[in-house]
Amino acid sequence: MTARSAPARRSFIEQARREQIVAAAIDVLYESGFAATSLAAIAGRIGVSKGVISYHFASKDELLREVVADVLTEAGQYMRPRVEAAGSALDALRVYVTSNLSYISAQRRKIMAFTEILNGMPPGGTEPGPYDEGHQQALAGLQQLLERGQAAGEFGEFSAWAAAVSLRASIDALAGLLRADPAMDVTGYGGQLLTLYERGVRA
């Protein structure tokens, strides 16, 4: 994607403008939904011409893929050091869930905008879905965590892949639940998930 190409050649001002555009896209997606999110609407949000947006992003598709990439990067930077600092596989699993839900709760606008993009740009056609690669990486990392717990004797015998798919789906469902109930108790939801999966994975 152009959005990720040659970042070293961008000036500080160009990078700041791109970040402003991405932030505006998130706001428009959150407030108006995917269908109403046009380059013109995003430009109007920050008081510039549509041409300014087009200078930095060739299309709406490219811009929205940049939003997805930025949210995934930010979430990874928040979660990864916390999970890696855990002393055992079980602790790592707990931190994986709590840090993931903590990020979602703190960044509800971004997560709901992210979900609008996924719903509006489903997989298919010549281009992969905007979350395809990120989703596969998340599943692989979670599967490896579960397999590590099995190898250490902390976790029992089960399909680490199936468990990773199930847990990831339960976490990813949170954005839709928040859209329906913005006041939802995310911490309580996370506690219930942990209770369920801790019982399921223990040796």
Pick out the low-confidence regions. Answer: 1-6
**Helical/strand content category:** mainly alpha
Radius of gyration: 19 Å
Q: How would a crystallographer describe the biggest sheet?
A: none
Oligomeric state of this protein: single chain
User: Hey, roughly how much beta strand do the residues contain?
Assistant: under 5%
Number of helices: 10
The N- and C-terminal alpha carbons lie at a distance of: 44 Å
Q: Give the SSE string.
A: HHHHHHHHHH
Give an overview in words.
The protein is about 75% helix and about 0% strand. The chain has 10 helices and no strands. Helix 5 runs antiparallel to helix 7 (about 130-150) and helix 7 (about 130-150) packs across helix 8 (about 160-170). It starts with 11 loop residues before the first helix and ends with a helix. Residues about 1-5 have low confidence and may be disordered.
